Amino acid sequence: MNMPGQDSESAKGSRVPAGLRSLAARYRHLLPATHYGIDPALLWIFLSRMSILRSLLLSARFGGWFLVSRRTRIKVGRGSKVIIGRGSFFLVGFVHYGATPAAIHLGRGATLSVEGTVLIRKAARLFVHDGAHLEMHPGSGVADFTTVTCFDHIVFGAGAGTSWYCNVLDTNGHVVVVDGERKPVSAPVVFGPNALTGSFVSVLPGVTLGEGSMVAAGSVVTKDVPPHSLVGGNPARVLSNDVKWIP
Question: What is the pTM of this model?
Fold first, then answer.
């Protein structure tokens, strides 16, 4: 999970209580997995901004670590469920750059499944419609001011995620007819392992981002993206066939 230890908020490390650094090192195996070392200053930011009572209630209700920051908005429809894998952490509303809270809305019979450590940053919004399924795998995440709209099935593979102000949706919201051909209202979207988008990207219904692929900022993705390729533009096209990123 991309929990940047170099986040500007960690500059407040002087406020970390004495002894937290040694405790973080001692119990590292019990803490969320990250691409970076656990910075005690960042850990203190999480603890100081957590809504402890709501986090305990949500964790008890769904049988896993469901940790939310204060003011995070959670709406759970009748018959919906959050499935949190054993030893997994679902972190919502932390690591932020603005005042807007994160929001999660689960419709009736919706499913949100979490494996490993998943980070939904502050100001991100997740909408999982009635009967839909959103899957989040280890190290995946949704960044600030990004909206994920799931009417069917959206998958974020291990290490996959978005940058700021993106729009990921698996539905048109209405019937579209192109050249006499009726298009499906919804179609699954898949982020392969370590697939990433730049900021202000739209990923449209039916798209699969291949493993290790990257989408340039401001792009609109209408077709599948090959693994380890860089795409950009509107509509997005392949710019390079050999890319990789190093966390």
Answer: 0.84
